[in-house]
Amino acid sequence: MKKQLLLFSIGIVAGVVTYATITRHKVEDKSNAILKVLESNCECDQIKQFLYVKGLATSEREISTETAEYELKNCKYTDLNSEAKRINQLLLKKVDGYKEIDRFTLEFVDQSSSKLVTINNGNINY
Fold it and tell me: Phi then psi for 81, rounded to 5 degrees?
């Protein structure tokens, strides 16, 4: 009986470790994939990832399980709404699981202003 309990416990621990390793790898892959898409498709002086969190988070307005925030400095674009739509379409096509991100924020910063675009599960909030 002790041997069975020991084997069962080892199996549980091995399963948890394996799951954690695989999940962590996917999260890193997704955040890196997003950054690569932004860097290769946006004309900006600098692109930074501020936050990438996978886990339960609550605020006054919403509950999310996956949140990402990126800052894009001094970007060249003619219309913010068109640029946000273009970036969103690229991310939908090129990043596996992008639509699973509950709260995705792009902050466009230049010398005179800062503009936020929030995307929830692949849908832009205007």
Answer: -65, -40
